[in-house]
Amino acid sequence: MREEWEKRLNHIRIRKEEMNKLVMNFLVTEGYAEAVAKFRMETGTKPDMNVAMIMDRMTVKKAVQCGNVEDAIEKVNDLNPEILDTNPELFFHLQQQRLIELIRNEKIEEALEFAQEELAPRGEENQSFLEELERTVSLLVFKDISNCPVRELLDISHRLKTANEVNAAILTSQSHEKGLNTINNIHSLSLEIVHPKLHSLLKMLIWAQNQLDEKATYPRIKDFSKATLENPAV
């Protein structure tokens, strides 16, 4: 069965232009500006936005990844003030990350003042913001962070989460500016623009396999990184 399945797959033809567009979409979304320029030169595939816009976005993302949140906020406002004005959740998360960085650097008085002046008013307006603020401030209670139940806030992974959030917001804004949010595709914008299409296709493939598992026996893909098929269980 596996050999027959592979034979059928080998007969499927995908146009090289479509594959190139898929690769370009990944490079643009993930912000590999140099790779975008090189790939365009080698294949003639045009990106949805110019390299300068990609580099602007990556500058902000890297600032957050390095803990320079105040600088990142300034850069976002330079690009488009409406990004934060129209996304209070993103702005709160950036301000929360600023507070985390102050705590990380043991600037306790500055952290308390910042929390009281900048974040507390937002917590009064939004219950989820208040809960997040309380979790963040609780970092100050523990001298030994290893015993803190919310120590994950100090992990680099939390920086990356915030950086990815602001990256997605800027990407959406840049796509709007390029006129990609027409009436026909405005619904798909939030689903496709902020994540590489490869990501969506992989999720669709996993879903399809899970559905097929309930109805048939077939050579399924076990290792998606290598796209290797495994023989069906007898």
TrEMBL record:
Q: Where in this chain does the entry annotate a coiled-coil region?
A: none
Q: Which InterPro entries match?
A: CRA_dom, CTLH/CRA, CTLH_C, LisH, Ubq-SigPath_Reg
Q: Where is the CTLH domain?
A: 53-110
Q: Which Pfam families match?
A: CTLH (PF10607), LisH (PF08513)
What is the protein name given in its UniProt record?
A: CTLH domain-containing protein
